[in-house]
Amino acid sequence: MKKFVIAALGGTIAGTLLSVQVAPLLAEEASKPASVYQELDLFGDVFRRIRGDYVEQVDDKKLIEAAINGMLSSLDPHSSYMPADEYDDMKVQTRGSFGGLGIEVTMENGAVKVVSPMDGTPASAAGILSGDFITHVNGESLMGLTLDDAVDKMRGPVGSEVTLKIVREGKTEPFDVTLTRDTIKLTAVKGRLEANTAILRITTFNDQTFPNLQESLKKVAEEAGGIDKLNGVILDLRNNPGGLLTQAIAVSDAFLDKGEIVSTRGRKPEESERFNATPGDLAQGKPIVVLINGGSASASEIVTGALQDHHRAIVVGTKSFGKGSVQTVIPVQNDGAMRLTTSRYYTPSGRSIQALGIAPDIVVPQPPAAPETDKAEDTPETRSEADLRGVLSNDSMTEDEKKQAEDERAKAEEAAKLRLEDFQLAYGIDIIKGLAVAGQTLVPVDEPKAAAKP
């Protein structure tokens, strides 16, 4: 089997069966004061006491699985054990279709925190936001549970309802949100044309991300009349929690001709790897803007860091999540698997974004959505010279020129409307427009400046 690594807060991929030479390890440890033998004896003694003396009868399998998961989860928030059923679910997710609410979550100080809601899912429709904390599911507290156990509480049959209690920054009291579970079908990339700019919304990094990216950009370019008609490209990575490392590398490579994309460094020097770009740029040198926010994590940060360090893109939005580690999913006995943090990753300049995140080149917060009552209010009617009775005609423009001026005004009004709907996206489009008007593009650098060392 092939070995894969994931760069996400959640995700599933097939890994290799890891064989461990236990005997040499035990022999080496035997000389130490607290040997592995003694520690295993301690574990066995505790296990026997629980089986024999606990107030209720325990399930041996569940007890051992809990011990394994406790061992892994004590390492970091992203290492964990997956029993066979969870492992099967995770493998399905990387293929892009599964049942659930459409929320990526992580653990923060023992609480379940939303990394991002996925586009077009019950969580997104219900208004769940990145940074929300989920404290209860159907009235049952999640405090003290592992992340996998908390996620289990949120799972259920498609069509069934679940009520989440949410704690949100800026709200004085927790509040309940009721969602209906649905089949989550993730389209990795959605493309559209906006003001002669290709908008590529990347929601996840699964097996389909790079093929979807190629196809989406091709369709948008055809709609514009050819890629030469495009002003530039916007990669929207907001609320993208990550996914497969291989796909993050492929997406970065799509817009870089050469140079390092990312490096990973494990515990041993020989486990370090560097991934470099190959010739070819899908955007053909057009300017690129990358949109990020606090829900952009891991694989999203790899792409952002690579394009930012090479000066291939301008990064707009707010600081990203800050997950700079890579997990390997390793199948074990009984058809389960463990997700183990095996390396850290570094951007081309050598910086680690672990617990720091990526700072945008231009910080642009997203204004909160206006209440429906505000949207419904009529704006005052304005009048111009053209509305006056008996107005003089404009004798300096032909009918075709007048039509062109009207078209340009309509486009400007659409752009103003977009600012109300999605200010960050509108800001990115304005940057692309400005570069196009000035006849400028972004000139990539082959060797990014090395990150400063403390």
Automatic annotation (TrEMBL):
GO molecular function, one term: serine-type endopeptidase activity
Stretches assigned to the PDZ domain: 87-155
Biased composition (Basic and acidic residues): 372-388, 399-413
InterPro entries found in the cross-reference section: ClpP/crotonase-like_dom_sf (IPR029045), CtpA/B_N (IPR055210), PDZ (IPR001478), PDZ_6 (IPR041489), PDZ_sf (IPR036034), Peptidase_S41A (IPR004447), Tail-specific_protease (IPR005151)
Stretches for region Disordered: 363-413
GO cellular component: outer membrane-bounded periplasmic space
Superkingdom field: Bacteria
Cited Gene3D superfamilies: 2-enoyl-CoA Hydratase, Chain A, domain 1 (3.90.226.10), 2.30.42.10, 3.30.750.44
PROSITE patterns: PDZ (PS50106)
The keyword Protease is assigned to this record: yes
Keywords for this protein: Hydrolase, Protease, Serine protease
Any one GO biological process: signal transduction
One Pfam family hit: CtpB_N-like
EC number(s) on file: 3.4.21.102
Protein family per UniProt: Belongs to the peptidase S41A family.
Stated name of the protein: C-terminal processing peptidase
Gene behind the chain: ctpA
